[in-house]
Amino acid sequence: MSLAIMVAPAVSVSGKAPLYLLAGGPGQAASDLAPMLNLFRRVNRERAIVLVDRRGAGLSQPLDCGWNLALPTDLEIFSSELADCYLEQKSFANSLSSRQTVNDLERVRRHLGHGKITLWGVSWGTRTALLYQQWYPESLSALVLDAVAPIETKVFLTARAAEDALQTLERDCLEDKACAQLGDWRAELNHLLENWKVTAIPFPDPFTGVLSEQPIPRWVLLNVIRGALYHPETAALLPYAIKQADRGNYLPLSAIEGLLRQNTMSLGLTFSVACAEELNRISPEEVARDGAGTFLGNAFLKMFERGCQVWPVSAKPYTKPEPRGHPVLLISGEADPITPPRYADEQLQYLSNKQHLVIAGGGHSNTGRGCISELIADFLHAPDKPLEQGCMEKIHRPPFMVDGFGPAPGGKTQLLEGENSRGGEHL
Questions:
Q1: Of 168, 190, 142, 166, which is closest to residue 20 (Cα–Cα)?
Q2: Nearest CA to 142 among 330, 373, 342?
Q3: Residue partners of 43: CB distance under 8 A and separation at least 6
Q4: Distance CA 251, CA 131 (A)
């Protein structure tokens, strides 16, 4: 089949290794990363930038199963539709894998006549980049990995990472004068979730405010909270939204759900890779240990466990990584709910030439925050030179939302006294 390839030529000819951008998911298309080209404009002066939509995504025969917007929240309906999708494209679904994607990248490199290349990957794209490094080390110049998913790490065990991210949010809220006045919103979250165990609660549509005819399942609510932790901007809304929801006003929480609702993944590709390379190596005991004492429990895995039952691709295990000496820049968010900094610190000992940037309060993917894109350009210019990281001290969480009017300029919002302080309940 044909692959969709997009190339932003270098502004000036320098002979420097092109930069290939690898998307996450698995299931996101590299073409979706086109808006990020502006972040790499300094890099693009001397290097071509290449985006390749992997098979099953974007413009390379997407296997999206017809889900371009919100997914069904009823797991029975979801698994039935997913099973139909698998049966319709069984051969294609079984052909998709990380090995295939890496081999395709190597074919593209040769087709474009590139010598050694540099890879930037985000989330699952870092897994793809690390596998490319293992299988085609002679074709690689350097790696930039944002939100690192090491080869040996079972990143779908995300409950502990999400809990740590939520606790970091609690800490930062307490250190913020305005947010601290919201009180113990974590206790209110626990109360809210306990009530949801008893009965699923009707949820207002985030675009109309009209109550849905179908109550939102508890596992979906948990994933809304988890999803909000991916970005500091949505995480800043959580304490207020949770406090309001515990009082019976679900509109702020519904608004967050609306921000996260649109599906941008080719979910057939997602399940082909996730079921064969990730879910197959996770045991029930590991799920129980990871979820113990966390707000998320096994909620993230519910859809995948059910989905993999009707998407029976064969296991495609990885071999143990071998030592590599390429220059590698690792980028992690302190409050990333799925690929926390400890993954990069603990699971990449076989990389002998690496630097690690940890962004305070950062979520999942940080290339676009503060000076990080400039540090990437500095690294690519002199990959063996230690980076000067002082500019990272200027990167902070956005101000917390503390009432219906949001934060005051500069994050110095003061809660209003009297009845006005409850104005947000009317949203």
A1: 142
A2: 330
A3: 19, 49, 376, 377, 380
A4: 43
Mean pLDDT of the chain: 90
SS3 state of residue 316: coil
Phi, psi of 250, rounded to the nearest 5 degrees: -95, 0
Phi and psi for 17 in degrees, rounded to 5?
-60, 130
Q: Which of 188, 171, 190 is nearest to 361 (CA)?
A: 171
In angstroms, the CA 77 to CA 83 distance is 10
Residues 6+ apart with CB under 8 A from 411: 176, 178, 398, 399, 400
Give yes or no for a contact between 310 and 271, defined as CB atoms under 8 angstroms apart: no
How far apart CA 185 and CA 305 sit, in angstroms, is: 31
pLDDT tens profile 218-268: 898 999 999 999 999 999 999 999 999 988 898 999 888 888 876 678 999
Q: Specify the amino acid at residue 381.
A: H
126-102-66-305 Cα dihedral, nearest 10 degrees: -60
Alpha carbon 193 to chain centroid distance? 24
CA triple 320-326-328, angle to 5 deg: 90
DSSP line for 208-226: T-PBPSSPBPHHHHHHHHH
Over pLDDT 70: what percentage of the chain? 93
369 DSSP assignment: S
| Nearest of 139, 140, 173 to residue 402 by alpha carbon | 173
- Is the bond preceding 26 in cis, omega lying within 30 degrees of 0? yes
Q: Where are the beta strands (DSSP E) in 67-225?
A: 117-122, 140-146
